[in-house]
Amino acid sequence: MTNPPQSVYSLDSLDGDPAPVLEALRNRAADQARVDSRSGTVWWLDDVSPDHDRCLIVGVRGEVGVLVWDDEDTGSCIPEHGLNTTDVDYFTVTGDHYPQQPGREVPVDQVIEAAREFVATRRRPSNIRWISDTRPRG
User: Fold this and answer.
1) Kind of pairing, strands 64-71 and 75-79?
2) Which residue among 67, 124, 137, 138 is buried most deeply as judged by most CB within 10 Å?
3) How many Cβ atoms are within 10 Å of 132's Cβ, its own excluded?
4) What is the CB neighbour count within 10 angstroms for residue 24?
5) Domain for residue 53, yes or no?
6) What percent of the chain lies above the pLDDT cut of 90?
7) Is residue 1 part of a domain?
8) What angle do CA 56, 6, 122 make, to 5 degrees?
């Protein structure tokens, strides 16, 4: 029996093992590349405790994907050198629309590495140069 698709992964439930997240990202990226999908799929990797509330938003859209760092204490950050110049449609695995603003997409291998690092370390991924995202969410 397969597990139902999920849009949110709790770092506590992953216990430092990024395999379920990486498998979901790689499989979806491969599926989207085969069909030349114009929209992507997005997930939340949550690290919440009484001391902190932070999240890495990850998504894939074929050869690219989205990254957003969200920390209750320090705010939201996006990649310094994001590739998309216009809004891009992303959806959760359950079909909810979550469009991404310009500057949030990077090559998919960077998304996968960022997800792996965050699950393993619970820190903002260091493979990306981050900048503050001061734009209101659309």
Assistant:
1) antiparallel
2) 67
3) 11
4) 19
5) yes
6) 57
7) no
8) 30
pTM: 0.87
Q: Encode 31-55: b = buried (16+ Cβ within 10 Å), e = exposed.
A: ebeeeebeebbbbbbbbeeeeeebb
Backbone phi and psi for residue 26, each to the nearest 5 degrees, phi listed first: -65, -45
Q: Is residue 62 part of a domain?
A: yes
Q: How far apart are CA 20 and CA 9, in angstroms?
A: 9
One-letter amino acid for residue 87 of the chain: D
Tokens of 38: 């114009």
Mean pLDDT of all residues belonging to the chain? 89
DSSP 36-81: T-SSEEEEEEEEE-SS-EEEEEEEEETTEEEEEEEETTTEEEEETT
Q: Please tell me the number of Cα atoms within 13 Å of 124 on its side-chain side.
A: 21
Tally of domains in the chain = 1
Evaluate whether residue 2 is within a structural domain.
no
Full domain range(s) for residue 102: 8-131
pLDDT digits (tens, 9 = 90+) for 76-117: 999 999 999 999 999 998 899 999 999 999 999 999 999 999
Q: List the structure tokens of 53.
A: 């509330």
